[in-house]
Amino acid sequence: MKRFIPYTVAGCFLGLLAGCGNEGGSSLANPTVNADTGEIGEPEVEDITLRLNWRFKGEFAPFYVAQEKGFFEEYGLNVDVLEGNGSTSVMQTVAQGQDDLGITSTVEPAQGVEEGMPITMIATYMNSSPIMIASHPDAPVETPTDLEGKSIAMAIASTFTNIFPRFLEEENVNASEVEAVQVEASARNGLFLGKEVDAVAIFSTNELPVFEKELGYELTSLYLSEYQFDLAGLTVIGNNQFLNDNPNTAARFLAAMDEAFRYTLEHIDEAVAISAERFPDAVDEEIVREQLTLLEEIAQFDSVPFGWIAEENIAETLTILEGSGLISDKQEAEAYFTNEFFQLD
Known about the structure:
Layout: E1 47-51, H1 61-68, H2 71-74, E2 78-82, H3 87-95, E3 101-104, H4 107-114, E4 119-126, E5 131-135, E6 151-155, H5 159-170, E7 179-183, H6 185-193, E8 199-203, H7 207-215, E9 220-223, E10 233-239, H8 240-245, H9 247-266, H10 268-278, H11 285-298, H12 311-323
Parallel strand pairs: 1-2, 1-3, 6-7, 6-8
Antiparallel strand pairs: 3-10, 4-10, 5-8, 5-9
Helix pairs in contact: 1-9, 1-10, 7-11, 10-11
């Protein structure tokens, strides 16, 4: 069983165990860590489930790399990585204790906490939002005001659709001059690929490589994060009872995933090969390679473990959601997340 190697950051062991304070966090139990060796205590449970919020796509590769390269095993865990059917469904199964951990965006758990669901965000692997507007180069949307006089397709009830009116307002775009076409996701893709609309709201780490390969040319990209609409994503949530009962297991999971993300982004070709072997019918190696390259661009964790949650990022997300009417009773950011299961040295 692998020992936990603490991180070296500015000479202070940040984390509850060493008493240097805790950034964020609800009142969950703390993992035990040997102050001399940095070893996390024995896992309370070894067999756990992780429910993804969709079927395989490139951003999920690190979870399978963790299995294939033995990172979970090194930390004494046997993690069953399960495909899912949307963030809302994942949040419900985790809240009900049917799954131990789940992958969602930050939007659903923020809403769930407000509704009293017993869940907490414990990591987020995209600390910059992948939400973007893609447009054809012959009708480019390079700035928000370029949307005026154009049409844009978006999925019904998606996060983008819900925050889009506020985005236009904040960027002083005349909404009456923007044709917003709300359709199902599959129809959205068809409208854009058929050039029946000028632009489309997508995720860079998912659809962008798919569309560019289909069309055979590079699309014009506008990231909402460049305009203070930066919603973190690829977030791990846990059931509060599970986290309270199994803090060492949670800490070991995050330590294993830190190694898995680091390894994946340093060995993208190997991660693609692992993914192709696991999902031979679903993986286009060229697309998955590009998805991982795009993931690397927005997964920036300097001097902290992969997944470390920045309180200001959560606060910004909550402000956007409140301004868009997606939450109505915003609490302090620390009510939604914790970094207690990460250890820094």
